[in-house]
Amino acid sequence: MITKIAWGSVVSSEFISKLVSIAHRFNWYDDGASDLMSCMAFESAETFSPNIRNAAGSGAVGLIQFMPTTAQGLGTTTENLALLSAEAQLDYVAQYFQPYASRIKSLSDMYMAILLPKYIGQPDDSQLFTNGSIAYRQNSGLDANSDGIITKAEAASLVASKKRKGLLPPRVLTGQW
Within its chain, how far is the Cα of 100 from the centroid? Predict the structure, then answer.
């Protein structure tokens, strides 16, 4: 039974209800709901805004930074996704995760479903990007030890940090005293 969900204090009860429903429908492990919240916190810069745009100008938008081609594959557009409420956009988050759901067994797998799905289920020391490639340059902030190689574990470590932060008491999380 899930008793506390990371970042649960900053979203609506309807959002949490839909999130928990998604985690149950996909038979995700006990902490799957918190892991999905942590992925969305990372991807949305902790805003959980359905209309937040990618700062690098990729055209991505929303809770998991849907790319234009991804949105098209889901039968919509990034423009339409940006007009939805966060709660309504969760339906598209669930639709996006559907083909990967049964293979997601950890936080790093869940984040790989967003970043690079072919690495779902692969070892955490798998090399995702290496220095000299465009993909490395676009994701260089994920290279925690600055060795020119971004591993699955390094990429997921930033999401894990969001999870730890999201599990803090609400007053610490929001800075309200």
Answer: 13
How many domains are there within the chain? 1
Asked, for residue 173, whether it belongs to a domain, the answer is: no
pLDDT at residue 177 tops 50: no
51 pLDDT more than 80:
yes
Task: Please spell the DSSP secondary structure of 135-154, one letter per residue.
Answer: HHHHTGGG-TT-SSEEEHHH
Structural contact between residues 144 and 69, judged by C-beta atoms closer than 8 angstroms: no
For residues 152 and 124, is the Cβ–Cβ distance under 8 A? yes
Candidates 100, 98, 89; CA nearest to 62 is 89
Note whether 5 and 33 are within 8 A (CB): yes
Structure tokens at 75: 């039968």
Domain of 55, in residue numbers: 12-168
